[in-house]
Amino acid sequence: MFLYLLLPQLVFCNSSVLQQPGSLFGFFSPVSNMSVDWIGYGYAALIASGGAIGYAKAGSVPSLAAGLLFGGLAGFGAYQISNDPNNIWVSLATSGALTGVMGKRFYGSRKFMPAGLMAGASLLMVGKLSMALLQKPQES
């Protein structure tokens, strides 16, 4: 039954009738004006999984807490960028903070895992966000 309701939406998803608010199939519309920040979500998953791996391997509760905190902030920042590409500030602050903290740890230990990997990924994220900031048109 559900397939019969969804089939016209899948076939005619670009129809203006189906895109009108209040239309029967408008709720199921696969067409979206929102571009998803997949890189940001991947970065958030990398941070959170790094904290979980640190806890699993070494029993480090601070690593788990920091991974979940910063992973959550990075995920929230990716969500904000997905909704409004000009709203990069949470992602930029999170990746900038991780670049500094993990870069300092990498400089002191000279061990690539985990500090070097996180510092490098965070630095790449700062670069991506900075390029997005520089490419958007200036408002006057």
TrEMBL record:
One of its GO terms (biological process) is regulation of heme biosynthetic process. GO terms for cellular component: mitochondrial membrane. Its main location: membrane. It is a multi-pass membrane protein. The chain crosses the membrane at residues 38-56, 63-81, 115-134. InterPro entries: TMEM14 (IPR005349), TMEM14_sf (IPR044890). The keyword Transmembrane helix applies. Required for normal heme biosynthesis. This is Transmembrane protein 14C. It comes from Sparus aurata. The lineage of its organism: Eukaryota, Metazoa, Chordata, Craniata, Vertebrata. The gene is TMEM14C.
